[in-house]
Design goal:
332 residues; mainly alpha; two-stranded antiparallel sheet; 12 helices; 60% helix; 5% strand; flat
Amino acid sequence: MRRLLLKIFLILAVLAAFSPGAKAQFKEEAFTQNYNDQRDSTEMKDSVDKVWSFREYFRGITHKDSTMKVGTMFAGSTVFIGGSQMYNRQYWKIPVFYAGIGGSIAMGIRSNIQFQKSRNAYLAAYEADPATTLTVDYEARRMRNRWYGAAAAMYWLSMMDGVINYHPEIKHNPGKATVYSILVPGLGQCYNGEYWKVPIYWGIMIGGYHYYHTNATNYKRYKRIHNEATTDDSYDQPITAERALYYRNVFRRFRDYSMVVIVGGYLLQVIDANVFAYMRDFDVSDDLTMEVRPTVISPYNEYALNPSGSGGSFRTPATGNYAFGLKVGFTF
């Protein structure tokens, strides 16, 4: 369980680290921007060459530019903690987040030092006397993990707070929906008003986790059996080393597939939130009309009527091959 949580944390950290790259894929002007000639050297040309700019970010948090996009604010806040609070003019929150993150990390380091000392003392005592009564302080290790988890939660909360208090110029902002889904799976769909999608994506990820846990458990089991069968001369269990190796590889592959399902479901709901946030205000009028009327179809392609005609030469269209039909027109 601890290793799985560590993997998920690393995946989220990588996604946050590469969020500037994601900004290029989720440009808020994706449906309105103009693609100019790359030879154009003006500053106003549309391009994704400059994915993220320190100048743009720091102009935003110093309030020299009040049009900073939510993607820029979020990407900068993953490194410069408190930047989003500065942009939102909520300065009093900055020391709260720094105290929470710094204090939790300090307490985690303290608990880790205590755990390491107890383990080193136990190993030294066990080497001198295997019947030693010294024990390892596993409670200190648990407290270390809790403190580090609290620091990660405060870091996440600082980014979530910045996005929640970001007030875009437009009422429904696609960038905000995207960042919501990055921070909390399904929250972008709630922001878009598509609540029915949340159980679908959560079902995909929870189902993927269920099979990940099951396959990981079986993988460890057959890995242990294979190790025993190949290293212990007294091994006499019914499962042979070859069969244990086969099942070990099978469950390892299924475990990896399950992780792909989890990550794929997570990325899919991020993309869904972004795309449908753009399409939320897509105007489709309810005034749909269809007009049907008779018409005469007259041939105009002389080559189609006279296949023997040579290329490049034009003749008077053949006459007489007319047809009657219906002309259908839609207005929407």
